[in-house]
């Protein structure tokens, strides 16, 4: 029988957070598809409608949480896939730093975009 290998530590928090963020992303994506493909059909959605949704604090907050969750889930998955492929030593440290910086840049730019889309911070 083949040995099962994973870079996640047994009982580790990164393993748990990867599963929790996956569950959250499935729920938010289901909400997205329901709202933008069943309530409003994609061809009916306009920039003004999207802007109006972003001015609502609950929707704005959900989108920010979605951004942070998706970023963590994706970067954590890529990092662990690379570790599973044998990444180690100084290359592992460099990849971790690059992915961390890229995550921060992505989140900061995403929040800036969301705030601009909402016409400033929503109330």
UniProtKB/TrEMBL annotation:
It is found in: Membrane. The keyword Ribosomal protein does not apply. Keywords: Heme, Iron, Membrane, Metal-binding, Transmembrane, Transmembrane helix. Coiled coil: none annotated. InterPro entries: SQR/QFR_C/D, SuccDH_FuR_B_TM-su. The chain crosses the membrane at residues 20-39, 59-82, 94-118. Pfam families: Sdh_cyt. This is Succinate dehydrogenase hydrophobic membrane anchor subunit. It comes from Haloferax larsenii. The lineage of its organism: Archaea, Methanobacteriati, Methanobacteriota, Stenosarchaea group, Halobacteria.
């Amino acid at each position: 029988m083949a040995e099962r290998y994973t870079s996640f530590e047994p009982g580790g928090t990164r393993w748990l957070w990867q599963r929790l963020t996956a569950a959250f992303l499935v729920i938010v994506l289901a909400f997205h598809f329901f709202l933008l493909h069943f309530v409003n059909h994609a061809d009916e959605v306009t920039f003004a409608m999207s802007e109006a949704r972003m001015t609502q604090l609950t929707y704005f907050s959900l989108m920010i949480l979605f951004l942070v969750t998706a970023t963590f889930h994706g970067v954590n998955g890529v990092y662990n896939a690379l570790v599973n492929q044998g990444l180690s030593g100084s290359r592992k440290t460099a990849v971790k730093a690059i992915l961390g910086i890229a995550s921060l840049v992505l989140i900061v730019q995403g929040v800036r975009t969301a705030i601009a889309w909402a016409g400033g911070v929503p109330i």
